[in-house]
Write a structure and sequence with these properties.
Radius of gyration: 45 Å
Structural class: alpha/beta
Shape: elongated
Strand content: 5-15%
Helix content: 55-70%
Largest sheet: 4 strands, mixed
């Protein structure tokens, strides 16, 4: 069934009915009984409107208020017209000619004294027009202007929170709707509140016209005595003025409350009670003041003493809890650690490695939600330490509200080096190039190596695996990406302090070796540069003792970084070759033809910036293309084999275009390793 309201339901007919009633009251004459009913309804609606304004927690919750204000004002003015018609046409029949409600207000409320009635009526008009309406109009003007001026800033704040991942699209839409409703509401209030201001002036004018017209009609048409006409028509007019002025005053009060109401989690009464009647000092001082006022001769003691006692009781009931209560409350915290504010030093420091995630990826990190990323990070650090011999610095994992909800960023020394998007509720199906069938999913790229991939649902895992895809979860994709980034930036993470820690561990077992090397032959910085270069070329530095031994031997003859690095590589030859050997123990290589190697040797020149390989860029591009073709056709990943003098230069030449290719020298290949050439560069 449709959830739309019925076109002719009660709620759909209410407002049109009120509008038609307003028009009818201005045109059709009414009997006194119906006038009594409508005046009672007007008073009741005004009271309900005022109470609603008191209990509403947010002005936006009462967004129909401006429209109700207009409708009630028009209803009241139409009742003024209808009652004026009754008074002027039937006023000679007695004070009940316009109904019992007007008669009661004219006789009972003001004691039948029309002079008192006029004074009370004027006082109500003065209160409504001079105080309430004027203040409400000014507040509406200022609030509407400030609300409209603040709209762009609020919209930008919502967009910033959405982009930062603080809120989702649904929450952003809700906040935008609230901003729009707030602007519409206060804009409408700025105009609607002026109806009540002019309403009071209209009531004053109508009352004056009724009195003058009543005297003229009573004396000239009904041949009444002037005193009788004045008393009858004035009492009826004042009664009619009071019976409409009081609802008008209530509506004006509700308008003032709405425009001055700040958004809160509680009603106005709760806020007043919580903010005014719970403060001990003002209540206690007020009670003391009233008590001393009661002691002043001539003042009513009973009234002042009763009010002073009430204030004193309120102050006593709101006194601060005893120290023991506070201690119990403090113990209630459960011993949760309180985090101190970060120091300036901590704020200025930079994490060597960091992973920042958007709010939608927090579940991958939070172990309480089943997240395993922290355990994966520990495993990565252990694995890299085992493979390379370098202890990776701790990885700082945190959320970053500036990122997209499903985005993560990898940072090295505070600088973002990579970012990617994940779908935490999906699996990543990676196409390694052997997929045999297409599957449904969201196109993506594997973040670590850039392979084509798809985000698929969990139930598609078996089908994707059968089709040749490699299926991993989002945490695995992030962990693999992080592992590759760490490996690529290992040289940058090796600081002098890390180098010293590594050397100190060797010194515990071989103190004489370290003493002979540092600082007699080489400085700690020289050792750090060699270790960094080894890590750049993906050479493990686990066997630091052998590395330091080689440096001690070579350091006596040279301080050149390239020569020191070559000496260390020759000492680590078996380990380096083992990285590139096949399961059969062969070392697949790409060799240089003797003529090419001779030309390259002749291209090595010494400049003021050091020794460089000066060859034509076109020749370098041609060599890189031939090497790339050889790598594509080779069954196993081959290495480029050359002389020791050429090796560092060729590595620097090809490392950017062929980062995964190893460059070895003949001196690094032990005699027992079988070399298996796969291509020769001419």
């Amino acid at each position: 069934m449709s959830s739309h309201p019925k076109p002719f339901g009660p709620s759909q007919l209410l407002v049109p009915g009120v509008v038609l009633l307003v028009l009818a009251l201005m045109v059709l004459p009414l009997p006194p009984v119906l006038m009594d009913l409508l005046l009672s309804v007007d008073i009741a609606l005004s009271v309900v409107l005022l109470l609603t304004a008191v209990y509403v927690k947010d002005p936006i919750e009462f967004s129909v208020f401006p429209s109700l204000l207009l409708l009630l004002t028009l209803l009241r003015l139409s009742l003024n017209v209808a009652s004026t018609r009754l008074i002027l046409l039937h006023g000679n029949e007695g004070v009940d000619a316009a109904g019992h409600v007007i008669m009661s207000f004219g006789q009972f409320v003001v004691g039948g004294n029309f002079v008192v009635g006029i004074v009370v009526f004027l006082v109500l008009i003065a209160i409504q027009y001079v105080v309430i309406n004027h203040g409400a109009v000014r507040i509406s003007e200022v609030t509407a202007r400030f609300t409209l001026d603040a709209m762009p800033g609020k919209q930008m704040s919502i967009d910033a929170d959405l982009n930062a991942g603080t809120i989702d699209e649904k929450e952003a839409k809700r906040r935008r709707d609230n901003v729009r409703k707030e602007a519409d509401f206060y804009g409408a209030m700025d105009g609607a509140i002026r109806f009540t201001q002019r309403d009071s002036l209209a009531a004053l004018l109508i009352t004056g016209v009724n009195i003058v017209a009543g005297l003229i009609i009573g004396v000239m048409q009904y041949e009444m005595e002037l005193v009788d006409a004045a008393r009858t028509f004035t009492i009826l007019t004042v009664g009619e003025g009071l019976v409409t002025a009081i609802p008008s005053l209530l509506v004006s009060m509700s308008g003032g409350l709405i425009t001055t109401r700040a958004s809160s989690e509680s009603s106005l009464g709760e806020d007043v009670a919580g903010q005014l009647l719970t403060r001990v000092q003002p209540l206690a001082i007020g009670a003391a003041f009233l008590f001393f006022m009661g002691l002043v001769p001539g003042l009513p003691k009973l009234a002042f003493f009763l009010v002073a006692a009430a204030f004193g009781l309120a102050a006593y009931m709101n006194r601060e809890p005893a120290a023991s209560d506070l201690s119990d409350e403090a113990l209630d915290t459960g011993g949760a650690p309180i985090q101190a504010e970060p120091s300036v030093e901590n704020l200025a420091s930079v994490d060597p490695l960091a992973v920042e995630v958007g709010y939608a990826l927090i579940s991958l990190v939070d172990e309480r939600q089943g997240g395993t990323l922290l355990q994966r990070v520990k495993s990565i650090r252990r694995q890299i330490a085992t493979e390379t011999g370098m202890i990776v610095p701790p990885v700082h994992v945190a959320d970053n509200l500036q990122l997209g909800p499903r985005t993560y960023a990898l940072l090295v020394k505070g600088v973002e080096v990579a970012r990617a998007d994940l779908m935490p509720d999906r699996l990543l199906a990676i196409n390694p190039g052997t997929a045999t069938a297409a599957i449904d999913g969201t196109n993506a790229r594997e973040p670590a190596f850039g392979l084509p991939a798809l985000w698929i649902r969990a139930e598609q895992r078996e089908a994707a695996t059968a089709a040749g895809y490699t299926v991993v979860d989002p945490t695995t994709a992030l962990s693999t990406h992080l592992s590759e980034i760490i490996r690529n930036f290992l040289p940058d993470l090796l600081t002098r302090q890390h180098t010293k820690d590594m050397v100190d561990r060797v010194a515990q077992a071989s103190p004489r070796l370290v003493d002979d090397l540092i600082p007699k032959l080489l400085g700690l910085g020289d050792v750090q540069r060699v270790l960094r270069q080894l890590l750049r070329e993906r050479v493990p530095v686990k066997d630091l003792t052998t590395i330091l031994e080689a440096l001690a031997d070579a350091g006596a003859q040279t301080k050149d970084p390239d020569q020191l690095n070559e000496a260390v590589r020759q000492a680590l030859g078996r380990a380096i070759c083992r990285q590139h050997q096949t399961d059969q123990g062969e070392l697949p290589t790409i060799n240089l033809a003797p003529s090419l190697e001779e030309r390259l040797m002749q291209a090595i020149v010494r400049t003021e910036h050091g020794v460089v390989l000066a060859i034509d860029p076109n020749d370098a591009q041609h060599m890189a293309s031939r090497i790339a073709r050889a790598l594509e056709t080779a069954v196993a990943q081959p290495v480029l084999l050359c002389s020791p003098a050429l090796r560092p230069h060729l590595w620097r030449l090809f490392t950017r275009v062929l980062p995964q290719m190893g460059v070895l020298s003949h001196s690094e290949v032990p005699p027992h390793v079988k070399v298996a050439p796969v291509a020769v560069l001419e």
